Amino acid sequence: MGKSKVLIIGGTGYLGRRLVKASLAQGHETFILHRHEIGVDIDKVEMLISFKMQGAHLVPGSFKDYNSLVEAVKLVDVVICAISGVHIRSHQILLQLKLVEAIKEAGNVKRFLPSEFGMDPAKFMDTAMEPGKVTLDEKMVVRKAIEAAGIPFTYVSANCFAGYFLGGLCQFGKILPSRDVVIIHGDGNKKAIYNNENDVATYAIKTIDDPRTLNKTIYISPPKNILSQREVVQTWEKLIGKELQKITLSKEDFLASTKVLDYAQQVGLSHYYDVCYEGCLTSFEIGDEEEASKLYPEVKYTNVEEYLKRYV
């Protein structure tokens, strides 16, 4: 059986562009939905042209034009959506309901990977902090629509993107590591899971033709990337040969700090609270058949120390 044809929606975005590269690298005929209303965003245009020169097909279409979605979906076997669910950038999770209808009408899709790629909403919908819970709630709305429509799916839970978490040593609002002072959340010992975004894309593409991942949630939880904040900081200190000054931020002070922020920032801070203070990502067990690095041992994932070396 040949490799599936793949349509990627959001292919110029933060994760989307990595999914395009991974799809091409793994030998899939790759289609990218692009909007007519891209305007004069020259960076996105140049990215699309670059992908075209690497062999990708550019397909005009938009969530504003339902028929264009249906026609784009009819070209492929697999649809991957990577539109943003991050409030501080753009938040479009529920737009996927139109895509679900288009996939249902087209009737040819063998696998759909919706825009998930974070914490598993099914695990935390009852315990997540407000207002960040809205993101999980909306992802569950999309999941229910997918399953009600009988669309074959894989949900990819990628936990924490390394660029957002490791880059700032797990400090909210920072994406470059300090060489002097670091804020430690609580005791700093709650473990989380950090993944290189390129690895997330590689694993996601691996799942699309794999019968083991059909109608399942797959977790990207490589064992070397399950660390506490203190362990992340210690890894950085080892790399730079210097111990940082550590300032502890209590749970109470963290929560108080959220009250002066705007809504989008509060949503983001809520996710940090669940990860850094509650340790939500490591609060449940997963089997080897659900974990990407066990399913695909041939993938050499980037561990935390290797990732942090880029900042030295």
Automatic annotation (TrEMBL):
Q: Which domain of life is it from?
A: Eukaryota
NmrA-like domain: residues covered:
3-308
Q: Per UniProt, which keywords does this protein have?
A: NADP, Oxidoreductase
EC main group = oxidoreductase
Q: What is its EC number?
A: 1.23.1.1, 1.23.1.2
Q: By what name is this protein known?
A: (+)-lariciresinol reductase
Question: Subunit composition?
Answer: Dimer.
> In its keyword annotation, does this UniProt entry include Oxidoreductase?
yes
Read off the Gene3D superfamilies from this record: NAD(P)-binding Rossmann-like Domain, UDP-galactose 4-epimerase, domain 1
Signal peptide (residue range):
none
